[in-house]
Amino acid sequence: MIELDKNNIPEHVAIIMDGNGRWAKQQNKLRIFGHTNGVGAVRRAVSYARQIGVKVLTLYAFSSENWNRPEQEVSALMTLFMQALDREVKKLHKNNIRLKIIGDTSRFSAKLQEKIAKAEMLTENSTALTLNIAANYGGRWDIVQAAQQLAEKVKNHEMAPEEITEQTFQQHLVTQHQPLVDLLIRTSGEQRISNFLLWQIAYAELCFLDVLWPDFGEKDFNRAVASYQQRHRRFGGTE
User: Higher-confidence residue: 205 or 84?
Assistant: First the structure.
């Protein structure tokens, strides 16, 4: 493990958890086998983020485009999501971790929506780490829904068009008052953003790892943060 500078830990880390299907294929198993084993990598990522002092960890679990996958896989993913909520929420609460599901949850079953609401309520006062699970989430959707909220406020004379700034817009995204993303990690070797947190990653450092998500562990997370700490963030300026 690389020794990290404790004074330069990214506040907000986002991860595109990619490679479950390929991992399962290597084992000659169905894709859902990879998703199931990916839950262990989620636990390791959450534990390590809390350990090193990350304030917000956002995991891309299910994109708004994932509904286009085979019905059997989507159904299995929904079942896995509910099982994970049942098993993990009490552990999150015990470890002072706040859970937020970010995305358009209206498309989920009433039972799953109820589980999400209860999980968020149980952990709402936790302060050590905020864990965002992006489910039925898309970056374009996020921007559009923020624009719709602001348009409604202008229509109702609650604010003037000139009062719409980057700051007020950001407050209407699903991440609301959370810090913008400092470090974006994608596993599996693919080098795409895939419609994830488009506004929030405007100046994020990007790290693409060859490891498939079920194999992702503390050493991989450590390597990504160490890479982040070697970079000079200029935010469009100069040194």
Answer: 205
